[in-house]
Amino acid sequence: MSGPTVDAITLARDLLRCPSVTPAEGGALALIENVLKTAGFEVHRLTFSEEGTAPVENLYARIGTGAPHLVFAGHTDVVPPGDDGAWTKPPFAGEIVGDILYGRGAVDMKGAIACAIAATLDRLAEKPLTGSISFLITGDEEGIAVNGTVKLLRWAEARGETFDHCLLGEPTNTDALGDMVKVGRRGSQNGTLVVTGKQGHVAYPERADNPVRGLVALMGALMYEPLDQGSESFGPSNLEFTSIDIGNPTVNLIPASARARFNVRFNDTYTQESLRALLELRAQNLARGHIRWHIEWEPSNADAFLAPPGPFTDLVSGAIAHVTGRRPELSTSGGTSDARFIKDYCPVIEFGLVGRTMHQVDERTPVADLVQLTAVYRKILEWYFDYPDQVLGKRASDKAGG
Q1: What's the sign of the alpha-carbon dihedral 107, 110, 111, 117?
Q2: N-term to C-term CA, the chain
Q3: I need a surface site. Which of 145, 176, 293, 343 has the fewest CB within 10 A?
């Protein structure tokens, strides 16, 4: 079988030249659409929006109709570059200096998307596909994540799409390609601690009630005692206050209220509900009716999750070791990703480039890493589709026959 192929480095450079800062599409999805349509994929471009948010463009593409069905997921949106003048090379030029590719999104995560497409087209050019390969690409991962993957998955489900496994190309490695894959993520919960007092003159404190005292005491109650000691697959949960907001420009005025915003990265010891209950109990036990307080909880779509161990994890780890010579650590560290949505539809594992420069000035990746990541993805595709029964068991044969 023969068909079009692409070079991962060339495609990565072309994608980096698309200024797709969230929520702008910037030409990145149009470029991917053209490449995949040329290769025979059925491609859908979908725009989602809701009141109060900017519309976001997304892409879903599939080739094949049978099982097994492997989906590559990712995002083409990037964070702003900051001061362009601080960059060694322009952030959207996609320039290669020596053997290093510079540009916003090089590692997070246009580089990995280019590698996945290049590996897929190479596989399709070599032999007929038994099964299905999809690309699920959003433009809303770096934003508020309400008009991207979460809605794209619902759309796919409504039209009867089912996935057996997902590989998400977020930058997972810390030092060298092959040192880490993400098999789960901690949950994330934002909240604002609010203490209400009584406004008054600082010279007459007996006539007022300064909420700052109560706020500081409650912050200590929430922050200083560990939430837990970690679990089998996750490190300890952690709460960090990130801002204190009193909004009082007058130095001789005791304010009426004080607020402090915080974030908790929590492990599978908790659900969102049980975490909130614990923190409110801690605050209640300290306040004991002497401090007027409440917590304003922000909606969260980021529960802790863990990909179940099994043949797919073994296959991905084995392919990484085969190509890089490194047996990757199975990790749940780091922030959130769109895997938090995908895990409700199929097992998902994350493996991409080295993330040391993501979101920084001069974001960059060695060209050699792009070559190696393409080879890893290519090996995954080879093993996944040549030996489907080892990944899915008898279910693969049943689904293929049905």
Answers
A1: positive
A2: 25
A3: 176
In whole angstroms, give the CA distance from residue 7 to residue 30. Answer: 17
Q: Are strands 132-138 and 56-63 parallel, antiparallel or unpaired?
A: antiparallel
Closest CA to 350 of 390, 388, 317, 378: 317
Torsion of CA 282, 283, 284, 287, to 10 degrees: 130
Tokens of 284: 């209640």
- Provide the pLDDT for residue 1: 52
Catalytic one of 25, 33, 57, 77: 77
Q: What is the pLDDT of residues 41-73, one digit of tens each?
A: 999 999 999 888 999 999 999 999 989 999 999
Q: Are 116 and 167 in contact (CB under 8 A)?
A: yes
Note if 141 is an active site residue.
yes
User: Same domain for 111 and 46?
Assistant: yes
Give the pair of three-digit tokens for residue 81: 């570059």
Same domain, 334 and 378: yes
Return the beta strands (E) in 236-371 as ranges.
238-245, 253-254, 257-266, 292-297, 305-306, 329-331, 348-350, 364-366
CATH number at residue 124: 3.40.630.10
Domain closes at, from 247, 265, 297: 297
Q: Are residues 18 and 140 in the same domain?
A: yes
Catalytic-residue membership of 245: no
- Given 241, 262, 297, which residue is the final one in a domain? 297
pTM of the model: 0.89
Half-sphere CA count of 164, side-chain side, radius 13 A: 25
Same domain, 34 and 172: yes
Domain that holds residue 279: 188-297
β partners of residue 119: none
* Structure tokens, 211: 């909420």
Q: To 10 degrees, what angle do helices 8-16 and 28-38 make?
A: 150
Q: 269 and 389: one domain?
A: no
3-state secondary structure of 237: coil
Active-site residue among 141, 142, 164, 209? 141
Confidence band (pLDDT; 50, 70, 90) for 393? Answer: low
